[in-house]
Recover the amino acids of this structure.
């Protein structure tokens, strides 16, 4: 198994997702036509990250999938090829931080 490479890929995907949100800044342009696309992409990225995390952090993965109303993905696992995991119109739960920020000074 190539665990180090797989975890690097998860971290890089999360980093790219954060960069995308920081660049698009949907919280500043709520009336913009593009805000729906930005939120859509952020939700899809979160779903993919949750699936990528499952082998390493199953509890965190399940928490994210539950927020996104995707319980069936861990109850009936299957290979996902498409970008759209969360279908438009899906009611998601109120999001909350799944991970705490690590204070590097305390390490």
């Amino acid at each position: 198994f190539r665990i180090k490479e797989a975890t690097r890929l998860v971290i890089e995907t999360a980093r790219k997702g954060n960069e995308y949100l920081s660049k698009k800044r949907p919280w500043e342009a709520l009336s913009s036509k593009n805000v729906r696309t930005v939120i859509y992409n952020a939700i899809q990225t979160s779903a993919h990250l949750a699936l990528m995390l499952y082998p390493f952090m199953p509890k965190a993965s399940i928490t994210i999938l539950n927020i996104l109303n995707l319980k069936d993905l861990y109850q009936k696992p299957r290979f996902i090829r498409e970008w759209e995991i969360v279908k438009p119109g899906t009611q998601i739960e109120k999001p909350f931080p799944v991970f705490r920020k690590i204070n590097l000074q305390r390490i």
Observations:
- The chain has a mean pLDDT of 88.
- The longest helix spans residues 3-24.
- The two ends are 29 Å apart (CA to CA).
- Helices lie at 3-24, 35-53, 58-67, 71-75.
